[in-house]
Amino acid sequence: MEKAKNLSPDLFKPAQIEKKEQDALSRKSVGYWQDVWGRFRSNLGAVLGLSLIVLTLLLAIFGPLANNYDWQTQMLDVANKESFSDHYFGTDHLGRDMWQRVWYGAKISLTIAFLAAFLDVVIGVTFGGISGYFGGRVDMVMQRILEVMYSIPNLIVIILMLLIFDPGIVPVAIAMAITGWVPMARVVRAQVMKLKSQEYVLAARTLGASHARILLKHLIPNVMGPIIIAVTFAIPSAIFFEAFLAFIGLGIRPPEASLGVLINDASTYLQIFPYQLIYPSVVLSIIILSFNLLGDGLRDALDPRMRK
């Protein structure tokens, strides 16, 4: 102890850290969504998926302006011609411009998928939020309903719905949403049950906030991450299901065009005019792949366990 007292204070000097090293050790304070965006940008697959989605949406909206044809005018004198002049994708068996029909079909397929995903969110978030928040008997009854809905094959429900209603954009989207909201409800219920015992929820309840306000202002906004991830995976599933329904004759009916309708029509001429099948199939595959890449990237970016 005496030796320690006799040591000169000059022997103990704070380490000098250069400014560059100090900047490297310190991390700039960022918000949650800024942190999410930073992790998202570092994922090349997610950025590629988002870029392909934006490009597809732009082509679906503005692509038809590239030539002077439309998606339904028949020109039998140029039927079954491969790409020539301003027919960039050629023509089909009735002489209709494939460029126009592919991008019109992509727009119809995306519209159905977005509408079905929107209905999934509205029904699933409402059902799952109420079930998880109130718990007890309410949760037990609602979960039994959920199990019954989950046990019914969605293909059977969709086929019955489309046999009752004339196939169209809205009926197909509603038919897919009848059972499509169940996974969303399960995700939201699990997250709400985890969050409803947090201090900020108890504080809001103590201050007299209503059940609706607690759900809408405190719980649902904190479940947006899993909801966004579920939506990005629900959209490609809906696009694929719409194409499947159109391929078996239960989706959009000709002369309307969706990607599934185009693939179904082109399958008859596959061995003779394969290009009529290749173009819509490639666009469909790119859309599904890009949404899956985006969903994987969002899942990694929004998951707090991925934070460094």
Automatic annotation (TrEMBL):
Record-linked Pfam families: BPD_transp_1, OppC_N
Domain ABC transmembrane type-1: 106-295
Locations listed in the record: Cell membrane
TM annotation in the entry: 44-66, 108-133, 145-163, 169-188, 227-252, 277-298
Topology with respect to the bilayer: Multi-pass membrane protein
InterPro entries tied to this protein: BP-dependent_transpt_permease (IPR050366), MetI-like (IPR000515), MetI-like_sf (IPR035906), OppC_N (IPR025966)
Source organism superkingdom: Bacteria
Key word NAD present: no
Keywords: Cell membrane, Membrane, Peptide transport, Protein transport, Transmembrane, Transmembrane helix, Transport
Family under the similarity heading: Belongs to the binding-protein-dependent transport system permease family. OppBC subfamily.
Listed name of the protein: Oligopeptide transport system permease protein
Organism: Laceyella sediminis
